[in-house]
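Recap slide: Lipoprotein, sequence and predicted structure.
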Amino acid sequence: MKRFVIIAVAALSVLAAGCSSKKATSKPAADRIAQTAARKVKTINSGHTRLVIKTISTGKVTTGLIAGKFHLGPTMMKVTVGNGGKLVDHYYFDKNEMYMKSENTWYKGKVDEKSELVKQIKRQLTGSANAQVLTNLKQDLKLKENDKTDTLSFKGVNPVGVKAAKQVILSEAGRQAQKTLKDVRITHFEYRYTLDKKTFLPTKTFISMKYRNTRTKKAVT
């Protein structure tokens, strides 16, 4: 385990050094920034992510957490997953080996890198799903320029926004959500993507949405 953590931290240091050495480019419009950002986010192969998911359903609030360090090619990931309750699971992936700690008990097993679990965790850690969202929203994004970062934002439930919102749901929930999406009506969607001016790599993403299941009449925020 210690060997895995050391390798992951070293990869992060290399990534940070590489990013800081790039030169700034000329100032393009929002759609061109989105195009470049969509391309760059797919190149991320190491980093540190903290994803907080707050859900309100039938008046009940739950807060989920996915946090971890990762290096891809070969795959090495150290991930903490919280489900909003007291249960917190810890995962360590080293190529096709998986170590899991749940309720103070360790488990070890083989895992296929093409499995839905691994693919979903990779999407969440790398933020790769943002590539498709940025591409679809690029004509409707607003640009806010800061000193060292740019923020691309969108708010609305037009057809483009609804499509982007459903892409986010699929990214977080996985393939099993595909069948239920036809019953989902998006009533609110807000998206903010902050990226480094020099590297076009993401520094923070904020997503807020409300939707209702038209079959069960259940509303979720």
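The longest helix spans residues 2-20.
The CA atoms of residues 50 and 67 lie 4 Å apart.
(End of recap.)
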